[in-house]
Specification:
Radius of gyration: 13 Å
Number of domains: 1
Order of helices and strands: HEEHEHE
CATH class: Alpha Beta
Distance between the termini: 21 Å
CATH architecture: 2-Layer Sandwich
Strand content: 15-25%
Helix content: 40-55%
Structural class: alpha+beta
Number of strands: 4
Shape: globular
């Protein structure tokens, strides 16, 4: 099973690709992996900000990350976070 250290290592490794190909300005993860409470069924919750709009490539990025990690990815932007959860999520995000 993956750990948060594995996630951080892989995100650091692919960050140049994320920045150049998908215009990622900032990326981090939150949820069960950030809290070290993941299970075998956990997905990876990733918060991303872009330097410019990427449109439908957002879904390409999500699939790319799923291929890299071999696990389901829940990719979200700050603006898409539910208002009730936003502050809690932003407090626990581990940025790379």
């Amino acid at each position: 099973m993956r750990t948060r250290i594995d996630i951080e290592k892989k995100l650091k490794e692919i960050k140049p690709v994320l920045m150049n190909e998908f215009f990622v300005r900032q990326i981090g993860y939150f949820g069960s992996f950030a809290a070290d409470k993941q299970t075998k069924k956990s997905d990876i919750d990733i918060l991303v900000e872009f330097s410019k709009p990427i449109g439908w490539r957002f879904f390409t990025l999500e699939k790319y990350l799923e291929e890299i990690f071999g696990i389901n990815i829940d990719l979200v932007t700050k603006n898409a976070l539910k208002k009730q959860l936003k502050q809690d999520i932003l407090k626990q995000v581990r940025y790379i």
